[in-house]
């Protein structure tokens, strides 16, 4: 009898969430979506393709920005060339409309994020992967990055990393590269490669680097792809992956010494390389100094 009630609750919350979301009632729909996952937890629903399909079906009903991705949004600037010369009341109306649009998008993202983070918790507790289902990480990373009015890679990088789509992470990195100075492009790529490697994901790191280089060099899928410098840091990335594929500690140590100056361009790189040495060669991890990097590594490999 109890199981029958749980089954009914699951059907009702799922259908209700999808109905509300399809009609743009995000607040109510997100609450029902959360209730669906909480029912999963109470009913001790085991992680399975069928249960995961319910999560995905609800996720796909969350509304999306139709015209452009959030990474391309531009908040109008009073002093920008686009607004100079316009009557002040027209600028004000445009700014108000943009602010309202951003607030609506922010609400959508928060509702979807809360639902998917709870779904990650369920997947970990119900027999799924220790870090949560990669499919749910993929959903969360993609929605937050493409739908947020002010996307921040630091808030979603761990979901890209624990997901299963390096090509999606590559797209996000390219978005960041477009908004960065030219001399920072290799820093953006290296950070992504090292973050994958710091959690032991060599195949994903290789796919990420290949995808970024392919798209930047050939303008694949993106005529406005950023320029990727042929820098020492990019050489380090390629050689590091070779060293790890060959399980060569001497080559790893030599690369670290040879490219020390390039790695020093970002204080976090040395710490990431320390973690790579621990993961792939069982090197002793240096004492972690409390601070920003420790928090960053915890965010990537630990809990939200």
Descriptive account of the structure:
- The structure is a single chain.
- Helices cover 69% and strands 0% of the residues.
- The chain is mostly helical and 304 residues long.
- The protein has 2 domains: 1-75 and 96-151, Serine Threonine Protein Phosphatase 5, Tetratricopeptide repeat, CATH 1.25.40.10; 165-304, Tetratricopeptide repeat domain (Serine Threonine Protein Phosphatase 5, Tetratricopeptide repeat).
- Helix 9 (202-218) runs antiparallel to helix 10 (232-245).
- It is flat.
- Mean pLDDT is 88; it is low at 67-83.
- One of its GO terms (cellular component) is cytosol.
CATH topology of the largest domain: Serine Threonine Protein Phosphatase 5, Tetratricopeptide repeat
Number of helices: 14
The overall pLDDT average reads 88
What are the low-pLDDT stretches, counting only 5+ consecutive residues below 50?
67-83
Count of spatially separate domains: 2
CATH architecture of the largest domain: Alpha Horseshoe
Q: What spatial form do the alpha-carbon principal axes imply?
A: flat
Largest sheet: none
Using the coordinates above, name the CATH class of the largest domain.
Answer: Mainly Alpha
For the CA atoms, what is the radius of gyration?
A: 22 Å
Going by CATH, the homologous superfamily of the largest domain would be: Tetratricopeptide repeat domain
User: What is the terminal separation in angstroms?
Assistant: 36 Å
- The proportion of residues in beta strands is under 5%
Region (Disordered): 75-98
GO biological process, one term: protein insertion into ER membrane
InterPro entries: GET4 (IPR007317), TPR-like_helical_dom_sf (IPR011990)
Family: Belongs to the GET4 family.
């Amino acid at each position: 009898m109890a199981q029958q009630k749980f089954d009914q609750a699951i059907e009702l919350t799922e259908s209700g969430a999808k109905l509300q979301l399809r009609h743009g009632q995000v607040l109510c729909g997100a609450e029902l979506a959360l209730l669906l996952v909480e029912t999963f937890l109470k009913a001790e629903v085991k992680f399975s393709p069928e249960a995961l399909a319910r999560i995905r079906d609800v996720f796909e009903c969350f509304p999306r920005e139709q015209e452009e991705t959030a990474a391309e949004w531009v908040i109008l600037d009073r002093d920008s060339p686009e607004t100079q010369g316009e009557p002040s009341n027209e600028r004000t109306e445009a700014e108000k409309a943009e602010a309202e649009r951003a607030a609506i998008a922010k609400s959508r993202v928060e509702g979807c994020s809360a639902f998917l983070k709870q779904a990650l918790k369920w997947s970990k507790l119900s027999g799924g992967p220790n870090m949560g289902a990669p499919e749910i990480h993929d959903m969360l990373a993609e929605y937050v990055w493409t739908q947020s009015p002010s996307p921040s890679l630091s808030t979603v990088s761990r979901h890209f990393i624990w997901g299963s789509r390096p090509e999606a992470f590559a797209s996000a990195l390219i978005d960041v590269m477009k908004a960065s100075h030219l001399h920072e492009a290799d820093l953006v790529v290296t950070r992504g490669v090292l973050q994958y490697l710091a959690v032991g994901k060599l195949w994903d790191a290789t796919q990420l680097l290949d995808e970024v280089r392919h798209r930047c060099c050939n303008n694949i899928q993106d005529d406005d792809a950023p320029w990727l410098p042929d820098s020492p840091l990019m050489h380090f990335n390629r050689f590091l992956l070779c060293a790890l594929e060959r399980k060569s500690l001497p080559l790893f140590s030599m690369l670290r010494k040879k490219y020390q100056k390039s790695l020093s361009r970002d204080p976090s790189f040395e710490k990431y390389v320390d973690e790579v040495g621990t993961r792939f060669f069982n090197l002793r991890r240096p004492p972690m100094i409390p601070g920003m990097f420790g928090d960053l590594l915890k965010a990537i490999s630990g809990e939200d």
